Amino acid sequence: MTKQLDGLMQNDFQLSVHHIRRALRANRPEATVATLVQPDVVERTTFAQTADRVDRLARVLGRLGIEQGDRVGTFAWNNQRHFELYFAIPCVGAVLHTLNIRLFEEQLTYIVGHAEDKVIFVDDSLVPALEKLAPSLGTVRNYVVMGDGEAGSLPNALRYEELMEEVGEGGFDYPEIDERQAAALCYTSGTTGNPKGVLYSHRSISLHSTATMFRDGLGLSRGDKVLAVVPMFHANAWGLPHGAALAGADLVLPDRHLGAAPLAGLIGSEGPTLMGCVPTIFSDLLRFADEHPSVDLSSLTNATCGGSAVPRQLMKEYEERHRVNIFQAWGMTETSPVATFCRPLERTAEGPREHDDAYWDERAKQGRPLPWVELRLIDDDGREVPWDGESTGEIQVRGPWIAKRYFREEGDTEKFDGEWLRTGDIAAVDEHANVQISDRAKDVIKSGGEWISSVELENELMAHPDVVEAAVIAKPDERWAERPLCCVVLRESCDTSADDLVEHLRPRVAKWWLPDEFAFVEEIPKTSVGKFDKKVLRSRLAEGALEGRVLVS
Ligand code: ADP
After folding, report:
1. Is it the case that residue 515 has pLDDT exceeding 80?
2. Which residues contact 440 (CB under 8 A, 6 or more apart)?
């Protein structure tokens, strides 16, 4: 056998958050982080100042007795201090554990105990939510309160700025990091059983942050100003904070001001070019802009939306009425999270492309796998499904920023098939590798042995001018096994009926997809990360507590 000949490149250069931290000073030290501390007050720090504060914070972590591999929790909004923690914790070799502030109390207690967090950094505005839990968080030695507000009844509470003051100025002698080391931990909201921990490595974060800069992906560049609305406790805010640091892009953080009014104000005053958030926030913002003609969103030339299917109408209205481009991404906590991105070609061989129906059909898809992400579709019998744009199967993915196992769940194999992650999303892929998700496996409606895509029905319903929100769930049916039940929020004081909505759907979907029942509700319940919560709708249906149900005549 011939001996392997090694390449003579710097193969040992570790892909770690150290490099991203160094980029804060090396790339564009004058870039700014702007945090909306009050609805109309923005505080600004440069990347160079941030890097200095990260060094101080690293020393604070040492004082707190944080060692390599320790988990350090954050319970915080998107703001400057959280951004600092994104660097200091991984760079001292510890693990940044971003706690989802919107989880139920039992889930939070479970997560902190499961991760064995030693210290939790908490925003003062969130102290009331955390102090109730503190007696049951046995592993936590200290709470560090960020901001001047009360520490309440938190035991062993310290103050962030006091600690930063005490350690004084100066650099920090960081430990070397092996790129395989854990850098961050994020639990998925847990659709079944307890939440599961996804343990990101320095390598996966480095590569995923680099991928935020792919032109066919989020396309983050030095010229961007990035408004990260997607929470920093949700899959590392889709890689935007680390990506901005690496690219040298300005960052805008909304803290707790996530209503349409403060966000519109922030967009108007800061002029971000890129914004990342779930469709519900984009939809709230659009309605707000409709009601307030002075709102100017047009700086957003490169917004990214995902987390659930992005209604085509939403993207279209933004483009047509506000000259705002929203592109769709797909992924999950286990995929860091961006795995596919939809950025159709704007030019063909014949010249500029028209934004006609075919274009919008493409935009409504979840897009193509990013480089380094490999994707396959597997049917119920375990066979690979062809990429013909029609046949569907479960999406399975593998790649350097895809999870291979959950934290401390050695026996959990259901989500993994060898090196492939089973996503639980059902999709078709066309010959150009464009992914189109029809449903999550558990949301799919099985009617008379055929599948009805809840995602597509929702998409078409939300294209109706009077429909604000639509979530479609399966309703048990004696004859067909399941039929679609459409839960719809209508625009105020309109008189659209169930029959009108069926007429709207008739030319758009297969005949047997047409729903027989609607529930006109005041609001669709949302999950902790702002997605439609179909679990709640299903249990309301089962308990007979789903308001506003009407049959189609
Ligand atoms: P969870 O929703 O379970 O809390 P995640 O936030 O990780 O956890 O969500 C991942 C899921 O969100 C995906 O498996 C998929 O079902 C859905 N999703 C994400 N982006 C999209 C998209 N662009 N279109 C459709 N579904 C999406």
Report:
1. yes
2. 424, 425, 426
